[in-house]
Every structure is written in C-alpha cells, then in structure tokens.
Amino acid sequence: MIFVTGATGILGRVIVLELLKKGKNIRAAKRPGSNLNDVRHSYSVYTEHPDDFFNKIEWIDVDFDDQDALQNALIGVDEVYHCAAKVSFHPHDEKEMYHTNVKGTENLLFACEGSGVKKFLHVSTIAVLDLFNEKGELDESSEFNPKEEHSAYAISKHLAEMEVWRASAEGLNTVIVNPGMIIGSGNWGQSSGDIFPTFEKNGFTFSGGTSYVDVRDAAKISIELMEKNVFGERFILISENKKYAELGQQIRSKLGLKEAKILTKSQLGLGRLANILFGWLIPKLRIITKSNIESISSLNTISNQKIKKELDYQFIPVKESVDFHLNNYINDKKLNS
C-alpha cells in the first residue's frame, strides 16, 4: 500500500493517478472539505478512463496533529509520497505554513518510525535554493542561506527538509524533490493552479521569472526515483527557466487579452513603501515585502542536469505544457459559465 498526502493538490492527484496506472493500491489523504469532484474531473484530461482509476482510491481524512490518526493511516503502508503543503506568499499565512509544512512533516515522519514504511518521498521547492555554483547557477548543492531574506513559505519548506534529512540520518530511506512552478490542470485558483487565473485577471506582470515543470513530469520522475531506490539525495525538477512576461504573453494572447505591462523593480519599491505606510489599513498591500519583490524581479538560472543524468529524462517544453493545460482551463471555464 502507498500513502499519498496532499492527494487533492495539483501534483499529489497526478502522482496518485500514475501509481494507479501501475496497478498500485493507494490510500490518499484529504481534508474534510476537499473537492474530490475536481480531482475526478481533472483525471479526464490525463486518461481515457478517469472513473475507473478514481474509484480505486481509498480516501481518508487525516489530521496531521493527531498522532493516532497518522499511525492508523500508515497501517499496511510501505511507501509515502508527502505532497501536502500550504503554499502562500502572504505574511498573514506564516503561522499556518509553519504548522502545516514543518509540524505536519515532523509528525508524519514520527508516525513512520513505528510503522512498516520503508520509502519516503518529500516534495519541497526550488524556493529553498540560495548559493550559486561556479557557473552562476542554482543546483542541488545550493544550500539555504539563513542570512538572506526569505519568504515565510521558503523558510517553512527549508525547515521541513531539515526534518526529512534528520529522518534519513536515523535510517529512513528518503528522497527530496524540488520542483519549480508546477503547471497542471484542475485546482484552478489555488496554489500553482493559480497560474492561468492570475495571468488572466492581471494586466501587469514582473520583470523577473522563474523555473517551470509540467505536473506529468514531476509525478513520473518522483515515482521513478522511488522505484529505483535513489535515496539520501535531492533532485531539482524543472523543464526551463522562463520570464513571467514570456509566459504571460502566451497565456493572455490565447485568452484574447492584450499584452501585460511589466512592472519594474522601482515601481514595486514604491509599492513596498505603500505597504510600510498603509499595510495595516489595506491588507492586499502586505504581500509587497522585500523578499517577494526580489523574487519576482529576478530570474535565476536553475540547473536540471542532475535529474536528466540520473534518469536520462526529457522534460516537456514549457510552451507545450502551457498550451495543454491552458486548453483545459479554457474548457473548464466554458463548462462552468
């Protein structure tokens, strides 16, 4: 039996589906209010038999603060894919992110200690990478630098990684994957499912960029690493480094919208000043922090050479990925209009 946390999330649901395609038995964690219909519907873009697969999932509600519930969830389980996380760049979500991302991971790993779990994959993020290599790139050796200013999300994911490395040192077979921004279908408006609604709603973008990966690649690689027993290591999962403006142009032109205006770093700096002066009055301004401005105004080159070499893997190009998932977004909008 394989246990997948965050199984209704954009990546977790596809990991579940790919494992089901391999004939695995899956126990999937969800929240009481999770939208399972959205998961079932999104499967229709990944397979011709969505219901056949969806109906094989054993769904359970799990409270990550309840050690007994976690131990019960792990009965008969020998592999865990830990995808559950709170993703936000809003300062008011700091406590919830620490609780979900750090304490949740710590509690799950503690529950694994007294169970039959032999393999544990942890989904982290490229947001924890700091120190550049001699080529001026970020890679798997790019350690988190506590002296730099980070978003609360990056800090929480770094601390979660520390819990995984501790469990690894104590003998659990663990592997960490660090995906870039995940492009996928479903979960629109939440976490990385917010890419298309955000570019649709906003007539502006930023001068920087980030690294992207298709959800299908992230899921398949995660499973392959577990199957090949590649443990005690981390792997960056990205297809390409892209500017926001380039991605925004592709999305907005397909949606029949005019090109987004690029906000410069100095314009964002004025926004930060507004945050300092009026953040207490206008909650939306609170997201304009120094670390957030830095991250959206720069484009770091992130290397995917390690995973390409390990698995001889060819990633789906970002343009192709965006086209595929954007079509699904447009079709779902028509369905719901």
Automatic annotation (TrEMBL):
Pfam families on file: Epimerase
Signal sequence residues: none
Superkingdom, taxonomy of origin: Bacteria
GO cellular component assignments: cytoplasm
Protein name: Nucleoside-diphosphate-sugar epimerase
UniProt-listed SUPFAM superfamilies: NAD(P)-binding Rossmann-fold domains
Residue ranges of domain NAD-dependent epimerase/dehydratase in the record: 2-228
Species name: Chryseobacterium shigense
Any GO molecular function: aldehyde dehydrogenase (NAD+) activity
Annotated Gene3D superfamilies: NAD(P)-binding Rossmann-like Domain
